[in-house]
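Fold it.
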Amino acid sequence: MLPGCVSLAEYRLDELARISGVSARNIRAYRERGLLDPPRRVGRSAYYDDYHLSQLRTINQLHRRGFNTAHIAEFFASLRKGADLADILGIQRAVLGPHADEPAATPDDDTARTLDIDPDGDEARRLIEYGLAERSADGLVLIDATVRQVVARASDPLVYVRSILQIHQTTRAAIEGLAGGFVAALDECVTARFGEGYQPRPQEMDELSRIVRDYRELWTGVVAHSLDKALQEHVQAADSEYAGILLAGRRDADRG
């Protein structure tokens, strides 16, 4: 069994807003519209936990995929009524975007700047088609915060954008395989914990949510470590003129 019995961290409203990147005003609105579960009340104080944080990240991901507020409220209503495991995993997969400890970017974040490329060009069209960027009122914005930060440092953003597209195309099949493997392994984990044909009860939702998050952290940690190790081995074996620079940088990072 994966670690799933630890108590959830709790947050005040302003803490939840800071960690999630969702304004306190929007959190209240989501709560009023039935998207967000009610907080735990102690007198006049309200306490939110990691499950609320997971819900907010799900809401953000579903908004990015074009779902409106009514659709998202219906999803969460299904969960509360006891949807089957396939439905729950479908919703939880929407959460598998930002890492649990990665701060979410806000519209005021400097890294949320628009891309300095032709918004109607082929590169922009492909970024949107691949789900790597979205249009805003001011132009085109890369969705991933880390990618935005890297591109923001580039003297010629178009060069990096073309690299992003190449990376996406080169890794797409492998990523799809990894994602499929993750879902299959997670399904086996939940089945082993709760049994075949499991129908979750409301009191078990916290544990199920924790298992999903824990499993995601284990999965991404192992994959990231394996990829980093394979990159080092391939760079060393390729006799590349850039290998010395890359490996020296890696050694400096390890010492730091």
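The longest strand covers residues 45-49.
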